[in-house]
Amino acid sequence: MEKLPKFTDLYRPRADSALLSRLVQDAWQAESRKLTDQQQALGACEIVTAHLESRFPGAHMAILARYGVAKSVDSVGVRTYSPETKRWDSTTSVTLTRAVITPGAYGTAEVSACGPRWSRDPNRGLTEGYFQRHTHEEYLALIADQDRRESEQLPESVEPYFSAVVTMRARFQDEYRQAAAWPVNYKSETGAFPTWGAIAEWFPIVGAWLEGLR
Questions:
Q1: What phi and psi, each to the nearest 5 degrees, are found at residue 114?
Q2: pTM for the complete prediction?
Q3: In the chain, which stretches have pLDDT less than 70?
Q4: N or C: which end of the chain has fewer CB within 10 A?
Q5: How many CB atoms lie within 10 A of CB 115?
Q6: In whole angstroms, what separates CA 194 from the centre of its chain?
Q7: Count H helices, E strands: the chain?
Q8: pLDDT, tens digit, for every residue of 58-116?
Q9: Treating both helix axes as pointing N-terminal to C-terminal, what angle do 159-190 and 204-213 enclose, rounded to 10 degrees?
Q10: Distance separating the N- and C-terminal Cα atoms of the chain
Q11: What's the pLDDT score for residue 207?
């Protein structure tokens, strides 16, 4: 194993840039393993499996499968909503506890989590002036679509896991991008490259990971 820098050592741009990037990646992979433990504690895989079975009764799906419009799957991608971006911009693969037949020739049933619960919002997420642009019939159709999508979401009991995955990925991507630029920006502001101690303060996950490796 290569020699790890001390917190008092100065960062060396040519020698240490690849090391810093790798440490960021290794530290967040360790965090990802903790999420796997959380997934198991919540029974997320079984909940996703049972959710699919309730949406797609096996007897009905078996008939569709004979015509090639349903397929047995042993894993699915769970699309997760981000309150920050207000988009479904993350997908997490989940291994099912048993195979489930789902609609589609490729078994690509949509599974979602952490989305808006419109039924709890008196305004249904609508902005002022909605009825000036839409008819009452369009409003009823919107409500029906919201209720359908809400009912198809995974139970709230597994939302902490999928929400944590979204947060972890966003932080990892941000820190991985910063890893190359931050020491250079630090030198521009202070006139010298940072110590590894300063890097550990700016990237706490890396600091804790380095401490654990000693």
A1: 70, 15
A2: 0.75
A3: 1-2, 105-108, 214
A4: N
A5: 19
A6: 32
A7: 8, 3
A8: 999 999 999 988 999 999 999 999 888 888 888 988 999 999 999 986 656 779 999 99
A9: 90
A10: 11
A11: 86
Contacts of 117 (CB under 8 A, 6+ apart): 150
DSSP notation for 67-79:
TTSEEEEEEEEEE
- Residue carrying the six token digits 């769970």: 78
Residue in 113, 112, 101, 100 with CA at minimum distance from that of residue 49: 100
For residue 111, the cross-strand partners are 78
- The string of DSSP letters for 86-154 reads TEEEEEEEEEEEEEEEEETTTT---EEES---GGG-TTTTPPTTHHHHS-HHHHHHHHHHHHHHHHTBP
Length, in residues, of the chain:
214
Of residues 63, 31, 18, 43, the one with CA closest to residue 204 = 31
Tokens for 32, please give them: 């990802």
